[in-house]
Amino acid sequence: MVHAVNGVSLEIRPGEIFGIIGETGSGKSVLGLSIPGLLPGNCEVGGSIVFKGTDLLRVDRKRLRHWRGSEIAFIPQNPATSLNPVLTIGYQVAEAIARFRKMQRRKAIAAQAAGLLRDLRMPAPEQKLKSYPFQLSGGMKQRVLAAIGLAGQPSLLIADEPTKGLDAIVRNQVVDMLHRMAQATGAAMLVITHDLHVAEALCDRVGVMYAGQLVEEGRAGDIFQAPKHPYTKGLLRSMPGRGMVPIPGTGPSLTEQAEGCAFYARCGERRPVCMSLRPALYASAGTPEQDGGVDPACAASGSDAAGSANAIDRTCAANEFNAAYVTKAADAMHAVKVRCFLYDSDSRSE
Q1: For the ranges 143-157, 197-211, 240-254, 269-283, which has the lowest average pLDDT?
Q2: Residue 307 has pLDDT above 70, yes or no
Q3: Residue 313 — very low, low, confident or very high, per pLDDT cuts 50/70/90?
């Protein structure tokens, strides 16, 4: 059984940009694909994905298909392969507008398409509608995907690696575009990226994933200025300008679930208790709304001595916090709550 994502619990609030960072293979994209139900058929999802008070795992496929695009939009990570090469940009954007905005008049649809591209600062938008994908730069293609995503005026926008393969100048333009999209629409936004500079510049809050687990969550400024989890510290030390020191070793196998911390073999702060204790995220003080986040899933961090009764009690309290948080998010009309367990059913052990 392959646990691509294991026990992740998070909330995205209206108008907020929430970033998911981590190494390749940590489960970021799988998490993003699970929300609109875009995972392959051999994947199974357990837990709950609560959107506007409704668990998406409990609704029928017809209703979920209706919500895709109109309420939940997904911007894939590779614009070069996501756009149809034999159809014009105008046709592809217009198709999304006609479907999600229920418009039929061609001139009105074309005007809406040009308006979307103009809002995203596409140069000469009317002319670009007549172009084919191969005639556009990487940054322009990314704007087209964003326009398609915004066509349905969604409440939640998921952007998977929006700056992948782009040079520094275009990357900054895309970051600015996403900022303006969030401010103009008021939609919640989930940004999945391995580019730590993008996450720092763009996101309000950040979650750090390792081996399919969420190991730290908090305000972006806190995460990048004062990381608490050893993995987050190592991830930031690998950035240019922070020493570019790689994290030793390789990630664990997702087919074998370790009893203790998944980062134990690579951690420079590990302690004996880490071999047997897998701590969960817990509230450091008050509620997440009051303190802006939760403390890391690490028995070795913080002021408590590892292995002490206090550390173990604190870890147990984390489970109660997560359960209460799920209930609270389910009552929030515009909150998006994810708490899921994903695995490849072809690899599931009997």
Answers
A1: 269-283
A2: no
A3: very low
Map residue 102 onto helix, strand or coil.
coil
- The residues spanned by each domain of the chain are 2-61+198-347
Helix then strand then coil, % of the chain, to nearest 5? 40, 20, 40
Rounded to two decimals, the pTM is: 0.82
Is 193:19 a contact under the CB 8 Å cutoff?
yes
Burial classification of residue 126, based on how many CB atoms lie within 10 Å of its CB (0-12 exposed, 13-18 middle, 19 or more buried): middle
What distance in Å separates the CA atoms of residue 78 and residue 162, rounded to the nearest whole number?
A: 8
Q: Thinking of the domain 2-61+198-347, which architecture would CATH place it in? A: 3-Layer(aba) Sandwich (3.40)
* Summary count for the chain: helices (H), strands (E): 13, 10
Q: Which residues contact 331 (CB under 8 A, 6 or more apart)?
A: 53
First to last CA, the chain: 9
**Residues ≥6 apart with Cβ < 8 Å to 103:** 97, 109, 112
